[in-house]
Structures are given as C-alpha cells and as structure tokens.
Records
---
Amino acid sequence: MVTSIPEIKLNDGLTLPAIGFGTYKMNGASGVNGILSAIDAGYRLLDSAFNYENEGALGEAVRRSSVPREKLRISSKLPGRHHSYQEALATIQESLFRAGLDYYDLYLIHWPNPSKNLYVEAWRALIDARKWGLIRSIGVCNFLPEHLERLIKETGVTPSVNQVELHPYFSQEKQRAWDREHGIVTESWSPLARANKLLQDRTIKKIADAHQRSIPQIILRWHIQLGALPLPKSSSPQRQAENLSIFDFSLTDEEMQAINGLSHEDGRTADQDPAKYEEF
C-alpha cells in the first residue's frame, strides 16, 4: 500500500506532493492510460511540457480520472523557441488549450538557452500569466545560479521551483544548496538516470537488500532525504505504485553518504550542460 505522501510548500504558498510523475514520451491513447494509471496509483503532481507534445493526453487523463481537478497539481513547460514575451504568452495559452485546462498549477521555462538571451523576457511573460490566473506558480528548469540571479535581480520575482537533472551519479550538491538558500525547491528529472547502469549499482544494491526494497525505491528515498522532489516515470502500474512506496522507511546517514559518494562531475546522462546546451 502507498502511504501518505508529504507535501512541500513553495515560496509562493502553493503546495506540491513530495514526489511527482514524469510523462516524457507518454503520448496518445497509451499515454492517457499510463497517466490515468499513475493518478489511480496515488500520484497528484503530473509533469509535462509543450515539447513533449502530450499536454492533450495529460488533460484527457485528468478529465477521465475520478480525482477532482483541484486535488491535482498539473505542470508544463515553455520551449526555447518561444521565449519572446508575446510568443511566451501565446504558448502558455496554447498549452492550456491543448490540455483543455483553465489553469496550470505550475509552469516552467524549460531551458535558459543563454545564447539567445531571452529567458528574462520569458520570465516576465510567466509573471504576467500568473497575475492573470493562467498559472498558479512559476518556475524554471535547468537554470544555473547565474541564470537565477539574473531573473531575481531584473524582475524581483524568485522562481518557486528549479527542475534539474539529478540522480546518484550527478547529485548537484552546489545547485541544490543554492536553490535551498534562495527558497527554491529543486525537482529532479531523470531521478533514476533514465534506467541506465545506476539500476545495477552494487553500492545501492547492497543498501536495497538491507532494507528489502528495490533499487529504484532506494534511489527515490535518497532524493526525498536530500530535500529534492523526484519525478519518476513508468507505464507499469506495479512500478508506479512501487515508486510511491518510499515514505515508510529511511536511509541511515551512512547509507546516504555512500550514495552521495557515487556522484561525479561528468555524471550527466547526456551532454546537456545548461551553460551551453539549448533546446527549442
């Protein structure tokens, strides 16, 4: 059974569950079924993006679900090709039309795309969209401290969330510390490192055996104890439920340190350094 999921309060007052559900590559009818299964399993935070091209599937799952809309937290993201102010506003509206929703609980800038130098303009659009009730909370993805500092300095508005690549092979210690010091919640994309060799890691396997848990459960529990909000993805109802069942045990300090020790500077799963990588 899935135990009660704690909530995290953002700097603007919105609350999010301590774990969410990633929907990347969940499209069409199968995507609707997978997302609906996740809602049935107990997920209440559902993370999408304009570039995933599945906001429609997400909205359809929300409509088919017996869970009231107000009990869910629906998130999407602004693509890099629409960072200019007017395009950003139109894209937010298009995101809502695609999903058939009246508002998003959380909307994020997907990447800073620094060479285009428009992310502050995009941020101003998100600020206004929030004022107009299209979005309840606004944040970013893949923003480095220098990007965040500029947003705050030029607009006076601090993002509520920074969603970044985060897993035991790339623990983002400095970024997490910066976010925490500025009241920003760090969300983890690819929390299981896209199911790569991390899921065969001997150190984590030993800890999993000690707790009689699966390796993904140990990794997700590690995220929770770091203070990060993981967004695992799975189409399997069994794994969806398993990934939620992480709030009835704890890792020891020694176990946390052992997992922390797996991180390394070049631990990204792909060459997606926000200082240079751009997505449109």
---
Amino acid sequence: MEVSYSDPHEDLIADCKKGNRQAQFKLYKLYSKAMYNTALRIVLDAEEAADVLQDAFIDAFKRLDSFRQESTFGLWMKQIVVNKSLSALRKRTVVFESISDIDDVADEEIEESNYSFQLEKVKEAINQLAAGYRLVLTLYLLEGYDHEEIAHILKISENTSRTQFLRAKRKLLEILKN
C-alpha cells in the first residue's frame, strides 16, 4: 500500500510541474526563508547558505516530476537542502572524532540544570563547536533528525552519531558556562 500525503500547496506544485514560473516563484517565497535557515545552521556562512538554497531550488524544480507526494513538499525540499548543505560541508572536509573511547560517554547523562541562556549566546556557542559536533547537534536538535537518519545522511554509524551528539552537548554546556 502506498501512502500519500495531502500537501496544502498541491495546486501550486501541480502548476510548477507544468512549468509555470509564477507558481515556482510563489513556492520559492513560501519555503525559501525556512530552507535558508536550515542551510545556514549547517554551513554557518550566509553566502554559502544562499548558494545552497539556490542550488536546492534549481534541483527541486528540475526534479519536481519525481516528487511523488510520499511526504509534504516542505519535507522533500528540506531533505534536498540538507543534502546540498552536507555536500558543501564535505567540500570543506568535516572530520568526525574517533569513537574508540565510546564507553566513557555512551551511557553518560549530562546534568542539564536550569540554564537560561540568551539565544545569541547559544548560537555563538554552537558555532564554536568542532564541525562534526556542530553538524550532528544541528541535525538532531534543530532539524529533528534521529540518530539513525543522521547516520544514514552522514554515512557514519548510529553509535558515532550518538557519541558526537553527547560530546557536542557536553562541550556546548562547557562553552556556555564560561
């Protein structure tokens, strides 16, 4: 049985499939800000995020006929943006830390006291994390992917994803305490 999702912009998508430029522009306006923010959280550079956004929409409009409504357009578009962002990062060479000492962090729970930090301070702290930590933390906390999905996206093991996340969380709390 094939699952199909009702998309609130189904008519707009149908017009885009027909090559209607005005419909493409409307769809772009509906999703561009959220998709830009997704790219920016991953690549951490405004110009590069804008390039990723542009490439993602060009790719999406070229492949719109392959969009089978198995998810919403927004989710499909977000997957394209995340993949394009990760490609941009790979060009910079993201290095993941070895998980050889996984036992020391696998079951560790970090005490999360009642920290109330300003959003800008948290953003700055995330930006200070090593690329591998920042990427897993962003995908997990901000983009809502689980460790299995992150492992698939980044071509790493689930344990590596969990370890990177725990270490990133620990490091983030350490940065925020200072």
---
Amino acid sequence: MTSATRHPLDPDPVRATKSSAVLGLGLLSVVTGPFLGGVIPATIALLMARESRGELVAAEGFLLGAKRLRTGVRLAWTGIVLAIAMVVVLAIVGLLAYARQRGTDFDPTVN
C-alpha cells in the first residue's frame, strides 16, 4: 500500500486568518447582540465570510479553517437574531408602559 506524499514544492497548509476573524466577530456579535450592538460585528463577519469562503475554495486545501468559518457564520446569525429579539422585547415593553400611562379616557359616569 502506498501512501500519498506531497510534492516538495507544495506549500504547507496554514490556517486562514479571515476564518479566525469571522469566528471572533461572530462571538462578539453573540455577546453584544442583546445590547443591539451585535448587528455591526455580525454584518462585518458575514461580509468577511463570503471573501474567506472564496479564498478557501481557491486555495484547494492549502488554507485551513472551514470549521471556524462555519461556526463564525452561525454565531453571527445568532447575534443578529438576538438583536432582533431585543428590539421586539423593547417594543412590547414600551407599548405596555405607554398603555399603563394613558389610563382610561372615559368619563367617571360611564359604566
């Protein structure tokens, strides 16, 4: 049985730095998502993920980091969902506070 050997001129596989950046930005977006600041790092992570995915494909296996890229994209989308959920919660709390403040508009003699 012969094992596949690399050609001596082939470059060593290296970790893609953009994949690591996408992972870091995705993690940051999850942490700051409930504070509505997670949308910005999530957007940057998703834009960088597109570029990084193209570079990983073009490198034909000499760039590593596909798992980091997938995890970073998932975290970025999670950060966006958390920010949207927080907007919805704040809107509901605001509407309830407004309704409580308004009270009744009826005359005291109305049943």
---
Amino acid sequence: MPRYAQSADDLLSSDDVLSMSGLEFMQGILEGRHPAPPIGETLGYTLHEISDGRAVFRGAPEFKTTNPMGTVHGGWYGTLLDSAMACAVMTKVPRGSVYTTLEYKINILRSIPLGMMIDCIGDVNHAGRSTGVATGEIRGVDDGKLYATGSTTCIIMKIR
C-alpha cells in the first residue's frame, strides 16, 4: 500500500529530488521510500510498475469519478494517462534535472465500468536533452481490452 503525501511537508525537497535520477525517484515511490502524490489517493490509482522508459499505474474508477451522466469522467482518463506517460519520461530524466508536461492528447475508445481494475501504461518513444515524448494506453486488467490511448510531449530542464 503506497504512502500518500498528506501535506506539502510530506513531499521531498527540491534538493532531494535533484540529487537522484528520475528512475531512482520513481523507484522510491514504488518501494514506499518516497511518498506517492495525493492525486493517486484522490482518484483511486497507484504506481504499479516502473522501469527505464516505462510506468504502469493500476486503479479502478469509483462513483466519485463520474460525470453527471454517471459514466467515468474524461478527466479521470486524462489524469491517469498524463501520470503514466509523464512518469515514463521521468524515468529518463538525469540527476539535477526536472520535467513537466507541455501537452498531452487522449482518445477515449470505450467506457470503463465503475470498479473495473485497469492498467494505465506509459512508454517513452524519445527522451533527449530537452524533450521527452511518450505514448500511453489504458487496458482492462482482466479483459485486456483497450479503453483509451494518449500521447505527450514533456520538457526536460537541467537545474544543476
């Protein structure tokens, strides 16, 4: 079970983050040495797997993630895809650098039933000195069906 940050004081300092590679940082979250971001607790997903150029989040939408029609809000798909794709890029960020999402696009292919466990997978296509590009997909854990896809461009910034 991840340890979610409950306040800004729970998060690592900038110096701590800059002292490790992005992959080391993400491995620390997966292993529970670093706090997971509170958005995961809010939206019901957690980091499930991390490796060089790849991030997988697992979760299930709940009623609190629905729109007025009672289906999963598009923002839930977007947030998960942004997390997986950007964290995949993060695994390529060297010590002394940070990243942020510049833009992302999603395509919702079918509705995810409430309570259904999904994997949201992000894979890096390119990571250079200043940009990272990744793609993502949301798949059902049990049925393997593709529910949404996405793509992102992130900026990588050397701080030290």
